[in-house]
Amino acid sequence: MSAVLQPGQAPGVRPPGEPAAAAGRSGTRLALRRFARNRLAVAGLAVVVFFLLFCFVGPLLYSTDQTHTTLTQVNLPPGGAHLLGTDAVGHDELGRLMFGGKVSLLVGLAAGILATVIGTLWGSAAGYAGGWVDAAMMRVVDAGIAIPALFILLVVSAISTPGIAGLILILGLVSWLVPSRLIRAETLTLKNRDYILTLRAIGGTHSRAIARHILPNSVSTIVVAATFQVADAILLVAYVSYLGLGVQPPSTDWGGMLSSGLTAAYSGRWWLIVPPGLAIILVVCAFNAIGDGLRDAFDVRGRG
Amino acid sequence: MANLLYLIRRVLQAVVVILIVTVVVFCLLHALPGGPARGILGPQATAQQIAQFNHEQGLDKPLPVQYVYYLRTLLHGDLGTSYTLNEGVSQLIAQRLPKTLVLTVLSAVVGLALAVPLGMWQAVRRNKPTDYVITTLSFVAYSTPVYFLGLILVLVFTQLLPWFPSQAPQGDSLGQVFADSNALVLPVIAGATSMVAVFSRYMRAATLENLSEDYVRTARAGGSRQRAILWRHVFRNSLTPVVAMLGYYVPVLFGGSLVVEQLFNYPGMGLLFWSAAQSSDYPVLLGCVLVISVATVVGTLLADILQRIIDPRVKAGTS
């Protein structure tokens, strides 16, 4: 990063004559610098990178059979050939942690991003439209927030068992409400700026105003919201198996490992619940810490 | 006058929200595979049986007509009849809801009672080790699935250290529930933990903001002690945004009670909901969703009004 700076130039100060577009870039650079100074946030980033490597590269280095049961090797405690022991059907627990983590991270990331996209579209449209359209759209959000997500997920589990794509869709659909409120608030502060009014005056369309001006200017709010949304989605994925909506065997995720290990824990097989439990806690903490760091760095109003 | 107008507007909003919730629940009812008939008659029912059931239940009429019927029965307090328990859904919920309220209100009170002083303490000791430790702990508490936390609590406090029973109070009346207070400890801890995490963060932020206000400097210059400033001024001013967040937290509390009641076998609405999901008892499921949502809307409304009472600075339309 320092290579980009001219000698003697203070970071973030635009040299005379440079186009205004650079101001946005150096603003981002300053924010990233503030982010890098936040120890908790950097630790969070390190944890996320670790788990991504662990789940997606790990199986290449530590290959285990996660499809066939090995009934001669069930419920082995940690140690020996199986670093974290084996579960009730003989799957290696460390390998399973990688295998299940793939699903948890993938579904969590996708659902969190989907929720942010829906929330962004809804919130910016409502805030930009204003008046009764805004009021009606936000009452829908209020209604959605009033119905606790876990209850909806349990109702869905009584109706059907979705696959991974269905799961992402359902989780996205129950969790777009909070981001929509944040983006709406952001849109309200932006929509009466001079450049939007000018654009309208020279005949620019509403969708152009939203797509080319409101959304790019809300990008930091959106990114912060997305980070928290991913944290919440990974946590929600952990509930999904517990509620009976989980991915079907032989596939699994951390939540599935956790809920299927519940009974095993009572008979002392702690190694079946502690690793997936810790993995969930660490990753969710990490995304929250990153979100906190980004929010402070970009000086965005947001939750918590 | 402004207060009255605000109140009327706010109540009207709540009514609209509740109407939207009924539409959502109604849609869910009709999203069931094969409709509600398949759910109750089972997979072996003939098409003729299903048609007859639909006719008897008015399910063969156009959807808007059904929705109006549905609203009318709702207004009479009739939520339908349970498929499996052969009892009115309203009666079932009336028996269970008070217990769930006891658990959620207790969790909320305990959670707030811990979170508020914790958040203030963190703000006063900002960026010192205490602050970091509590921040980290609250991140961990927030990130722990309630069922995992509950399991750990049961393992530690009923097996390792046999201090509390692993089952919540089973009594029918609220008196019996309170009499068995020892058995309430673990469910309340499980329900309150994430609340402590979230609200200590809010309280920390609100306190920090207030500590940098001019009135604090004035009070300090006037010779007031830190403790007096903190409790007499900052505390009250910081509490307002926290109370406002309480309204938004009601659905999370109910969601938590769903898991806590199942874990500790506490016969409230969450457990009713859970067993209804296992037996595809759709009237009970949707009745519970409706009641919980209405309770949430009312809770949010009360929190908004409470916030206006506590803090006269909050003007209508700002939230």
TrEMBL record, chain A:
Q: Name one GO biological process term.
A: transmembrane transport
Recorded hits in InterPro entries, A to Z, give:
BP-dependent_transpt_permease, MetI-like, MetI-like_sf, OppC_N
Keywords, alphabetical: Cell membrane, Membrane, Transmembrane, Transmembrane helix, Transport
Q: What is its main location?
A: membrane
Q: Does the keyword Transmembrane apply?
A: yes
- What Gene3D superfamilies does this protein map onto? MetI-like
* TM annotation in the entry: 40-62, 103-128, 140-159, 165-183, 222-245, 270-291
Entry GO CC = plasma membrane
What domain of life is recorded for the organism?
Bacteria
Q: Which SUPFAM superfamilies match?
A: MetI-like
* Record's bilayer topology term: Multi-pass membrane protein
Query: Does the record bear Transmembrane in its keywords?
Result: yes
List residues of the ABC transmembrane type-1 domain: 101-291
Q: Kindly name one Pfam family recorded for this protein.
A: BPD_transp_1
- Signal peptide bounds: none
Region spans: Disordered: 1-23
Q: Where in the cell is it found?
A: Cell membrane
Q: Which family does it belong to?
A: Belongs to the binding-protein-dependent transport system permease family.
User: What is the name of the protein in this document?
Assistant: Peptide ABC transporter permease
UniProtKB/TrEMBL annotation, chain B:
The molecule here is called Diguanylate cyclase
Q: How does it sit in the membrane?
A: Multi-pass membrane protein
Q: Where is the ABC transmembrane type-1 domain?
A: 97-303
Q: Which domain of life is it from?
A: Bacteria
Record GO cellular component, one term: plasma membrane
The similarity comment for this entry is: Belongs to the binding-protein-dependent transport system permease family.
Q: Where are the transmembrane segments?
A: 12-32, 101-120, 132-157, 177-199, 242-264, 284-306
GO BP terms in the entry: transmembrane transport
State the organism of origin.
Answer: Streptomyces sulfonofaciens
Kindly give the InterPro entries that the UniProt entry links to this protein. Answer: BPD_transp_1_N, MetI-like, MetI-like_sf
Compartment(s) of residence = Cell membrane
Keywords, comma-separated and alphabetical:
Cell membrane, Membrane, Transmembrane, Transmembrane helix, Transport
